[in-house]
């Protein structure tokens, strides 16, 4: 079967075990909190304290609701904008097998967007409004998707590093305090794990191919390494949303903790691939963690603000897709109205 003929990746199975454990806890616990009596605020506090799940029907502080909408919408936008850099290679994939795999992967990302917009809608927002906020820049998406995909090896580097960083970020969200988000994340993480594995496999094949192929793989890693590290967000000292998100148990680990986990895992995997990470200062410390060079956070903020290499292109493409799809939305609305009329 695809992907089974390549070496195991250190650390990868452990992430999937964490997802499985979160899923067991979720189904074992049932919906809602621990049934604590009391006012709405007390109920919310009690559910959070007991590590329960807040559900759409539950009263929740307005700030919690708003913070979740911001985070889930940003996540949903990232999934669908993230289809573009790799979609760029579907027509140029080097074989029919590679094309089929990449098509399935890009389609998965559309599905992730769908789960997440649906999760956001349980908080009382309309996905059309979220979409508008993406298009006019009021809501963001992950800065990583503003970098170009220059060669086929970039598809491998994105799968290995970008989907890999996404999993490390998202596995703890399987235990997020908001039920619909946690449940969406369990499914997303299982699929992301497959994406990460396909990227690793592409790089493994290239790394063991001709010298030119190996050089192409190394060049892609050199370009994607630091933007991938930046995916975890600013350092803890500059992170504005972290403390409150941790108190609400939306977030479980800090940006720097997750970044370290990713570095530790990836250094070992790079060794198996026989490729190197572009950081001459990587050192294994006595605490068992790898010391590494921080990404350029000024560049991260420049890209977040809209001045990355591909920001304009990504949003223009998205806007064109939205406008081209207007007739589908109109037809669906007209059809729904007609059915409504028929049943009254
Ligand atoms: Fe995804
Ligand atoms: Fe993915």
Automatic annotation (TrEMBL):
Record-level GO BP terms: phenylacetate catabolic process
An example Gene Ontology molecular-function term: phenylacetyl-CoA 1,2-epoxidase activity
Highest taxon of the lineage: Bacteria
One cellular-component annotation, GO: cytosol
Record-linked InterPro entries: Aromatic_CoA_ox/epox, Ferritin-like, Ferritin-like_SF, PaaA, PaaA_PaaC
Protein name: Phenylacetate-CoA oxygenase subunit PaaA
Organism: Actinorhabdospora filicis
Gene (name only): paaA
């Amino acid at each position: 079967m695809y992907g089974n003929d390549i070496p195991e990746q250190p650390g990868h199975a452990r992430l999937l075990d964490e997802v499985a454990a979160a899923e067991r806890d979720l189904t074992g616990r049932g919906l809602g909190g621990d049934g604590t009596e009391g006012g709405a605020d007390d109920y919310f506090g009690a559910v959070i304290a007991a590590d329960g799940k807040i559900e759409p029907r539950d009263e929740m502080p307005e700030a919690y609701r708003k913070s979740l909408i911001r985070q889930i919408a940003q996540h949903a936008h990232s999934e669908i904008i993230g289809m573009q850099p790799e979609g760029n290679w579907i027509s140029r994939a080097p074989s029919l097998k590679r094309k089929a795999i990449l098509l399935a992967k890009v389609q998965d990302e559309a599905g992730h967007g769908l789960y997440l917009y649906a999760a956001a809608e349980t908080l009382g927002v309309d996905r059309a409004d979220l979409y508008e906020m993406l298009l006019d820049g009021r809501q963001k998406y992950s800065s990583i998707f503003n970098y170009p995909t220059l060669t086929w090896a970039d598809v491998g580097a994105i799968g290995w590093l970008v989907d890999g960083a996404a999993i490390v970020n998202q596995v703890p969200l399987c235990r997020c305090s908001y039920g619909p988000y946690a449940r969406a994340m369990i499914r997303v993480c299982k699929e992301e794990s497959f994406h990460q594995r396909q990227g690793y496999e592409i790089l493994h094949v290239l790394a063991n191919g001709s010298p030119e192929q190996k050089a192409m793989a190394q060049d892609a890693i050199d370009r994607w390494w630091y933007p991938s590290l930046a995916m975890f967000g600013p350092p803890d000292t500059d992170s504005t949303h972290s403390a409150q998100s941790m108190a609400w148990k939306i977030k479980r680990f800090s940006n720097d903790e997750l970044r370290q986990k990713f570095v530790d895992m990836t250094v070992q995997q790079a060794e198996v691939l026989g490729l190197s990470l572009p950081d001459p200062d990587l050192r294994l410390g006595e605490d068992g963690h790898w010391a590494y060079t921080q990404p350029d956070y000024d560049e991260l903020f420049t890209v977040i603000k809209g001045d990355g290499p591909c920001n304009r292109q990504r949003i223009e493409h998205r806007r064109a897709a939205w406008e081209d799809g207007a007739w589908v939305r109109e037809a669906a609305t007209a059809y729904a109205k007609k059915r409504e009329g028929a049943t009254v």
